[in-house]
């Protein structure tokens, strides 16, 4: 039916009159109208939303601003611990979002097949035009890509990557030796060097290229800072993903040269490496690069190219780039943060440090670990107390500081006996979940690695409620690599050197962008 805008006698029709009046009102009073609608929306969110019964900060019940501010401060992990202490197991953190503290509920939320899908938070992480395993929010597409990408990340494939890790450990050790020789009792920034180590390992593993952080002993080209700035943006804007269209996805953004990351060291290297191996063929994928010896090593990009050649429809050229490049973002700060937490806690507790040193020297004496050189994965498993410390570090200071958030399926769902309506965002924060007293004991807030060794059955039960690597279909794909790397470097450093915190009692500086990026782990170091 056509709308009549003008009456036959030339006078304005009622419809036209209404449109005119509305236009005049909107153009004159747009600001008060906008403010009024924001206010009405906030009042609706606060008093009429189905989530109104859940407690939480007033601002959070009205708007997403609370989440934005908490993320911008970089303290989401600590804010969430405080929130749950104050308000209980279910806290409203945004008009349509609640945070849970029950590890049982988190298990359901993250388990595969329950249809709690990723929220648009992830779509902010670049590259939006070609999402990788981490950023892909379409579950079916994610499953296809992950099937290909899982192959190079299996534990068997990881053994092939060991030589890359071994070389990087040698370089780290030589840098520590140099420090001892040149500056004697000077302070060594162990945290920074662990950070450089994690990045350099990934450069080698992903592209057979060293980023040169350890070699130069600095953040070359500010590459780490660039990644961290990008993660800070993703974390904050991810709370209001629509904003990304006004900001980074805005075509204007691309004309501002200093905002583009195309020329950032890591992206540049990934693009160069792709270029060197194109057009993709089996022989060019596994090209002999500087690092390639006769030890059968094959980098991640090569494995991904082979995956692409097997199934080019499902795993395109863009996916090879996105997954290899994404590995640097997902795997570097996370692994560095975990190692920093480990050393921070071990060195802060004299009894822990003594026990670990005793375990290592006994293992050397018994021949279960070598007296010199690098350890294998299996040898590191012969150090149960060290393994308990690693678990405890990942429990009290998990590397992901922001929430892992999923959407309740449209028909609604129960979590730990509580029903939530379809479309509700449900957030789980590892720092909160890992402090659950019913699961980890009354002393869950304390560092006490012995809890993992007291009772095998109890340890297995606690392990089921550890979320440092996420869970379900989105379980971290790089966990084998991260654990292999950590299990090789940590005992080697503890066996060959003696560390003493330069500022005992001082907290690490921690900024949660997505991962908890830490600094301030400074120590005196000498040879053992
Ligand atoms: C100790 C080190 C690491 C920790 C603590 C860690 C933690 C996590 C967590 C918690 C998730 C789930 C995120 C979510 O669901 O929102 C995740 C996913 C992921 N991680 Fe890791 N990660 C580590 C190392 C790595 C490494 C070394 C790589 C790659 C080289 C990697 C690649 C990924 C990818 C691709 C995903 C997405 C998986 C999916 O959604 O299917 N991570 N990681």
TrEMBL record:
The chain crosses the membrane at residues 24-44. Keywords: Antibiotic biosynthesis, Heme, Iron, Membrane, Metal-binding, Monooxygenase, Oxidoreductase, Transmembrane, Transmembrane helix. Pathway: Antibiotic biosynthesis. GO terms for molecular function: heme binding; iron ion binding; monooxygenase activity; oxidoreductase activity, acting on paired donors, with incorporation or reduction of molecular oxygen. Pfam families: p450. Belongs to the cytochrome P450 family. This is Cytochrome P450. It comes from Sordaria brevicollis.
């Amino acid at each position: 039916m056509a709308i009549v805008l003008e009456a036959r006698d030339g006078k304005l029709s009622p419809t036209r009159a209404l449109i005119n009046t509305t236009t005049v009102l909107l153009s004159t009073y747009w600001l008060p109208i906008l403010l009024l609608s924001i206010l009405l929306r906030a009042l609706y969110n606060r008093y009429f939303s189905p989530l109104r019964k859940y407690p939480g900060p007033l601002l959070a019940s009205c708007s997403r601003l609370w989440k934005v501010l908490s993320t911008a401060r970089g303290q989401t992990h600590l804010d969430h611990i405080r929130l749950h202490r104050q308000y209980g197991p279910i806290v409203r953190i945004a008009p349509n979002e609640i945070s849970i503290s029950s590890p049982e509920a988190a298990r359901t939320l993250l388990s595969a097949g329950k249809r709690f899908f990723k929220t648009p938070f992830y779509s902010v992480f670049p590259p939006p035009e070609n999402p990788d395993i981490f950023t892909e929010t379409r579950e079916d597409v994610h499953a296809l890509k992950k099937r290909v990408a899982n192959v190079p990340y299996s534990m068997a494939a990881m053994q092939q990557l060991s030589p890359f890790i071994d070389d990087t450990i040698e370089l780290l050790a030589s840098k520590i030796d140099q420090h001892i020789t040149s500056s004697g009792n000077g302070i060594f920034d162990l945290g920074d060097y662990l950070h450089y180590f994690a990045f350099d390992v990934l450069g080698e593993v992903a592209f057979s290229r060293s980023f040169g952080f350890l070699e130069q002993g600095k953040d070359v080209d500010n590459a780490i800072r660039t990644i961290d700035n990008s993660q800070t943006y993703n974390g904050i804007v991810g709370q209001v993903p629509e904003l990304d269209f006004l900001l980074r996805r805005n075509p204007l953004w691309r004309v501002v040269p200093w905002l583009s990351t195309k020329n950032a060291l890591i992206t540049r290297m990934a693009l160069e490496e792709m270029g060197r191996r194109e057009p993709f063929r089996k022989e060019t994928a596994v090209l002999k690069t500087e690092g390639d010896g006769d030890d059968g090593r094959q980098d991640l990009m090569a494995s991904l190219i082979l995956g692409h050649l097997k199934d080019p429809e499902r795993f395109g050229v863009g996916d090879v780039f996105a997954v290899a490049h994404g590995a640097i973002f997902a795997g570097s700060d996370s692994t560095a943060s975990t190692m920093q937490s480990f050393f921070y806690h071990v060195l802060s507790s004299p009894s822990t440090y003594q026990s670990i040193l005793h375990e290592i020297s006994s293992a050397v004496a018994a021949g279960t670990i070598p007296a010199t050189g690098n350890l294998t994965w299996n040898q590191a498993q012969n150090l149960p107390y060290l393994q308990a410390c690693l678990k405890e570090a990942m429990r009290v200071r998990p590397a992901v500081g922001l929430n892992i958030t999923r959407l309740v399926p449209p028909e609604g769902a129960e979590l730990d006996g509580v029903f939530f309506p379809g479309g509700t965002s449900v957030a789980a924060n590892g720092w909160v979940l890992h402090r659950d007293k019913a699961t980890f004991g009354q002393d869950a807030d304390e560092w006490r690695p012995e809890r993992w060794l007291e009772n095998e059955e109890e340890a297995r039960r606690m392990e089921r409620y550890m979320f440092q690597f996420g869970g379900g279909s989105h379980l971290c794909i790089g966990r084998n690599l991260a654990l292999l790397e950590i299990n090789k470097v940590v005992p080697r450093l503890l066996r060959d050197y003696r560390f003493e915190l330069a500022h005992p009692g001082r907290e690490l500086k921690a900024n949660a962008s997505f991962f908890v990026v830490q600094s301030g782990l400074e120590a005196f170091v000498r040879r053992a």
